[in-house]
Amino acid sequence: MSRPKFDDIYMELAVNLAKRSHCIKRHVGAVLARDTRIISIGYNGPPAGTHNCDDEWPEDGCPRDSKGGCSLAIHAEQNALLYAVKNKTSVEGATMYVTLSPCLACSRIIYTMGVKKVIYLKSYAEYKGISSDEGVDFLLRFGVEVEKYHGNLENITHMI
């Protein structure tokens, strides 16, 4: 039996975490890892104790804010970082695996928190229909490694 790469394991976990999202518009998952250990996880959705969008607004999702974004949702990257901080876990030098490349706001936070590398599955720019991945551009500009995931998500948890 061949052993799966850690990148494949963490990205598969991020994909599965995305399935936990209550967002109507998009499901996103994130995993923070350092030295082959998971240090935090997250998925997009409303803050704990508020409304789950798919329960409260099953047709259209939560109301939009003044810029057209979700008025309740915390992004998966933010949730993973917040959970780590809440539990007094440093994310300095960590790698973030995320199913959608970070938006500009998340990228600013990722950089500020000292995450050294981001590996993403799909492009935020393609999803939003915009010309470039502003978040990726920001991270690269300030020295954070960023790469599109090109691993194998098929059957890595299949046991013989």
TrEMBL record:
<feature type="domain" description="CMP/dCMP-type deaminase">
    <location>
        <begin position="5"/>
        <end position="147"/>
    </location>
</feature>
<protein>
    <submittedName>
        <fullName>dCMP deaminase family protein</fullName>
    </submittedName>
</protein>
<keyword id="KW-0378">Hydrolase</keyword>
<dbReference type="InterPro" id="IPR035105">
    <property type="entry name" value="Deoxycytidylate_deaminase_dom"/>
</dbReference>
<dbReference type="InterPro" id="IPR002125">
    <property type="entry name" value="CMP_dCMP_dom"/>
</dbReference>
<dbReference type="InterPro" id="IPR016192">
    <property type="entry name" value="APOBEC/CMP_deaminase_Zn-bd"/>
</dbReference>
<keyword id="KW-0479">Metal-binding</keyword>
<dbReference type="InterPro" id="IPR016473">
    <property type="entry name" value="dCMP_deaminase"/>
</dbReference>
<dbReference type="InterPro" id="IPR015517">
    <property type="entry name" value="dCMP_deaminase-rel"/>
</dbReference>
<keyword id="KW-0862">Zinc</keyword>
<comment type="similarity">
    <text>Belongs to the cytidine and deoxycytidylate deaminase family.</text>
</comment>
<dbReference type="Pfam" id="PF00383">
    <property type="entry name" value="dCMP_cyt_deam_1"/>
</dbReference>
<dbReference type="InterPro" id="IPR016193">
    <property type="entry name" value="Cytidine_deaminase-like"/>
</dbReference>
